Amino acid sequence: MSLSTHVLDAAKGLPAAGVAVRLDRREPDGTWTAVAEARTDADGRVREWGAEPGTGVHRLTFDTAGLSDFYPEVTVAFTVDDPGRHYHVPLLLSPFAYSTYRGS
């Protein structure tokens, strides 16, 4: 399975570089285990995690302090059901709103 993310600062219309992102996996008992951490590159992307997340429920937690005074962090949970596919989870952030979707 491969996973990527992209953070866009919608208020500026630019990629958000240097954003800390943590990838966690939910264990069968409901607890979360950290899988990897990364920072977005100059294009606002994380392409490599250095870890294989595997199937199951995962979450990305974005440290958005400084990009939004209202949302100091944003967490997006998602399910990986096909380890042979690529998963892309972008975050579009503005000062008082955010959105995400399943990208390609």
TrEMBL record:
Q: Which GO terms describe its molecular function?
A: hydroxyisourate hydrolase activity
Q: Which SMART domains match?
A: TR_THY
Keyword Lipid biosynthesis included in the entry's annotation: no
User: Catalyzes what?
Assistant: 5-hydroxyisourate + H2O = 5-hydroxy-2-oxo-4-ureido-2,5-dihydro-1H-imidazole-5-carboxylate + H(+)
Q: What does it do?
A: Catalyzes the hydrolysis of 5-hydroxyisourate (HIU) to 2-oxo-4-hydroxy-4-carboxy-5-ureidoimidazoline (OHCU).
Question: Quaternary form?
Answer: Homotetramer.
* Name by which UniProt lists this protein: 5-hydroxyisourate hydrolase
Q: Tell me the organism.
A: Actinomadura physcomitrii
